[in-house]
């Protein structure tokens, strides 16, 4: 508001009515410019993705002779090979199992931990919360060497659990941080009414709080699902045999193994990004809302 | 943990504040004991996981960093801070550190102006905004590995990128530049810029979406009032909207800085630190030293340095930014 007061007087006298009406009917030139700039940025973001998908329908010969042309003729064999390969489906399954395991683990343990932190009064509550918050400062990379040794000692190397458990642990800080204010915001009257009716605090958690917290849990879950689906470092170190590979590992391996078969890599890459794209389209609101909430929280 | 293990002692301090009435003492004690039990049961799984798989490994990294150790033999060769002095005088590590700082500064310099501009434009009345928002966010959802593989292919000589830039190359050639076509990933002078652009491609959607969400939280009446007073669209953005978006921009910048410091996946996939080690980041360097060369002690020291730098960034953020942005937030103080 003060910025307004400091503002120099409008340079052109007739602006006020023009500006007011321009909100109803925007100036053509500026609107066109607006669309041009936004569409140009969208083109830059989306053209590489479209290029990879369409080029998967070409042969290596076509790609070599004209790197950017449309497929002519459209070849289905690259995609056919990927979709009929056991490796690919095994990797989809592995990625799914790990992502589902991580998501479930984070939601269950995170919600449980957030409940007392949000709604009990006890000595040391803020200190305990702070411990979780500090965890935000430790990305998985900082601890990866000892974590690797620890997983080795626990015989978890090479197993899906070896990826799931650390991912859950490292996702707890952000989960607790998102869930606690949400659980806190549930009105106290609800809790008091439940206690008057003879419900215990545990009963309140299961019967009233959990159903109300579903939106926040979905947000947290979607974020962790995507993070797990895309993770590379942990799976790279933990999963040693190709049978247990996740999709990112599979894509990286495929692209170095068949580095001369560009068309096949393109097809493999496209198919590998479809699950994430489909999931994102379905869950767009949750992901976007969760990210902006997480960042603001 | 210690709290849950000593319910009796801790309970003495607890409920007095909000239950001043003097009930029968044993009943109250049973009640508080039960409360502590509940707290313990609810918190224990998360806290145990967190301690065993986050705090202990981080502490162990600090411990190992004081040893010369290959990860297998007994921990006997205590060498004090030698690993740290080695890292801080090692040209390869210092280059990795400089590369990280390049990504820190470069990501903000490239993404902030574009993302802010696009977000401001998309915040105006616009047909198809929902669809645009969806499309612009697509790269963020892809994994860094997939983005890396995609761009490795497109950046091959005579690939999509070279094709798209061929008019520029032609122009440069007529201006007398000898071989204007850069080797995007094989030239030590170019590779960092290439990586920076791919990273920006992948993450700019995140900035735009975040800024759009922040813009939606700004009271439109402020802008309307300014418009009635005769302010132009650009004046409104510069004097009202962008300053009000400040907290969102600052938190995005913080997230971006931390991400740039931790950068691993994309570099690993696209260059694996090459050519000639010129594109290593601290994280790829750490993994290389730790796993490929079995220098767990030295690798741990690098991890600790990486953590220390991130920690300083976080402290700076909390000290200078968060305090002024969040004076009214009660979540933090409760």
Automatic annotation (TrEMBL), chain A:
<feature type="transmembrane region" description="Helical">
    <location>
        <begin position="161"/>
        <end position="183"/>
    </location>
</feature>
<feature type="transmembrane region" description="Helical">
    <location>
        <begin position="92"/>
        <end position="115"/>
    </location>
</feature>
<feature type="domain" description="ABC transmembrane type-1">
    <location>
        <begin position="92"/>
        <end position="283"/>
    </location>
</feature>
<keyword id="KW-0472">Membrane</keyword>
<keyword id="KW-0812">Transmembrane</keyword>
<comment type="similarity">
    <text>Belongs to the binding-protein-dependent transport system permease family.</text>
</comment>
<feature type="transmembrane region" description="Helical">
    <location>
        <begin position="204"/>
        <end position="227"/>
    </location>
</feature>
<feature type="transmembrane region" description="Helical">
    <location>
        <begin position="32"/>
        <end position="53"/>
    </location>
</feature>
<feature type="region of interest" description="Disordered">
    <location>
        <begin position="1"/>
        <end position="22"/>
    </location>
</feature>
<dbReference type="InterPro" id="IPR000515">
    <property type="entry name" value="MetI-like"/>
</dbReference>
<keyword id="KW-1133">Transmembrane helix</keyword>
<feature type="transmembrane region" description="Helical">
    <location>
        <begin position="263"/>
        <end position="282"/>
    </location>
</feature>
<dbReference type="GO" id="GO:0055085">
    <property type="term" value="P:transmembrane transport"/>
</dbReference>
<keyword id="KW-1003">Cell membrane</keyword>
<feature type="transmembrane region" description="Helical">
    <location>
        <begin position="127"/>
        <end position="149"/>
    </location>
</feature>
<dbReference type="Pfam" id="PF00528">
    <property type="entry name" value="BPD_transp_1"/>
</dbReference>
<dbReference type="InterPro" id="IPR035906">
    <property type="entry name" value="MetI-like_sf"/>
</dbReference>
<keyword id="KW-0813">Transport</keyword>
<protein>
    <submittedName>
        <fullName>Carbohydrate ABC transporter permease</fullName>
    </submittedName>
</protein>
<dbReference type="GO" id="GO:0005886">
    <property type="term" value="C:plasma membrane"/>
</dbReference>
């Amino acid at each position: 508001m003060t910025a307004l007061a400091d503002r120099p007087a409008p340079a052109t006298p007739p602006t006020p009515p023009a500006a007011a009406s321009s909100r109803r009917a925007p100036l053509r030139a500026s609107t066109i410019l607006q669309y041009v700039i936004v569409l140009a940025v969208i083109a830059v973001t989306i053209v590489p993705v479209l290029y990879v998908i369409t080029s998967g329908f070409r042969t290596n010969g076509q790609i070599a002779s004209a790197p950017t042309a449309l497929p002519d003729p459209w070849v289905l064999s690259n995609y056919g090979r990927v979709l009929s390969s056991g490796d690919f489906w095994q990797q989809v399954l592995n990625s799914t199992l790990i992502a589902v395991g991580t998501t479930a683990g984070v939601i269950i343990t995170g919600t449980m931990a957030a409940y007392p932190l949000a709604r009990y009064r006890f000595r040391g509550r803020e200190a305990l919360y702070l411990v979780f918050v500090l965890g935000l400062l430790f990305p998985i990379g900082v601890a990866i060497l000892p974590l690797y040794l620890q997983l080795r000692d626990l015989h978890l190397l090479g197993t899906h659990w070896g990826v799931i458990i650390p991912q859950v642990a490292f996702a707890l800080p952000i989960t607790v941080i998102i869930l606690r204010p949400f659980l806190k915001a549930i009105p106290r009257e609800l809790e008091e009414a439940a206690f008057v009716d003879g419900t215990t605090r545990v009963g309140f958690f299961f019967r009233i709080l959990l159903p109300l917290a579903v939106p926040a849990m979905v947000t947290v879950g979607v974020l962790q699902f995507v993070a797990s689906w895309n993770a590379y470092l942990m799976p790279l170190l933990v999963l040693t045999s190709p049978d247990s590979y996740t999709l990112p590992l599979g894509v990286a391996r495929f692209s170095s193994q068949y580095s001369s078969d560009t068309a096949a890599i393109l097809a493999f890459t496209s198919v590998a990004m479809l699950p994430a794209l489909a999931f994102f389209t379905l869950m767009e609101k949750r992901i976007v809302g969760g990210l902006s909430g997480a960042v603001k929280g | 943990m210690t709290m849950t293990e000593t319910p009796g002692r801790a309970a003495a301090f607890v409920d007095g504040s909000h239950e001043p009435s003097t009930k029968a003492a044993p009943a109250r004690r049973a009640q508080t004991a039960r409360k502590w039990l509940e707290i313990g049961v609810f918190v224990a799984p998360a806290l145990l996981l967190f301690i065993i798989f986050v705090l202990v490994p981080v502490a162990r990294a600090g411990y190992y960093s004081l040893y010369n150790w290959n990860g297998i033999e007994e921990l006997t060769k205590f060498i004090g801070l030698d690993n740290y002095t080695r890292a801080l005088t090692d040209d390869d590590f210092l280059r990795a550190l400089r590369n990280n700082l390049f990504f820190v500064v470069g990501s903000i310099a490239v993404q902030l102006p574009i993302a802010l501009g696009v977000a401001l434009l998309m915040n105006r009345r616009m047909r198809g905004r929902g669809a645009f928002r969806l499309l612009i966010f697509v790269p963020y959802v892809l994994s860094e590995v997939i983005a890396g593989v995609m761009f490795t292919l497109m950046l091959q000589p005579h690939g999509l990128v070279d094709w798209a830039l061929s008019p520029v190359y032609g122009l440069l050639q007529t201006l007398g530049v000898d071989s204007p076509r850069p080797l995007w990933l094989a030239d030590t002078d170019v590779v960092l810029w290439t990586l920076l652009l791919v990273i920006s491609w992948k993450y700019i959607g995140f900035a735009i979406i975040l800024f759009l969400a922040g813009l939606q939280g700004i009271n439109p009446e402020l802008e309307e009032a300014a418009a009635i007073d005769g302010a132009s669209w650009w004046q409104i953005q510069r004097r009202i909207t962008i300053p009000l978006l400040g907290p969102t921009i600052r938190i995005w910048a913080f997230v971006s800085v931390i991400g740039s410091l931790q950068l691993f996946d994309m570099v690993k996939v696209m260059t694996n630190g090459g050519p000639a080690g010129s594109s290593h980041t601290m994280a790829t360097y750490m993994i290389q030293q730790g796993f490929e060369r079995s220098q767990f002690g030295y690798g741990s020291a690098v991890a600790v340095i990486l953590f220390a730098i991130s920690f300083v960034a976080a402290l700076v953020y909390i000290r200078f930014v968060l305090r002024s942005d969040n004076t009214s937030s009660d979540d933090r103080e409760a």
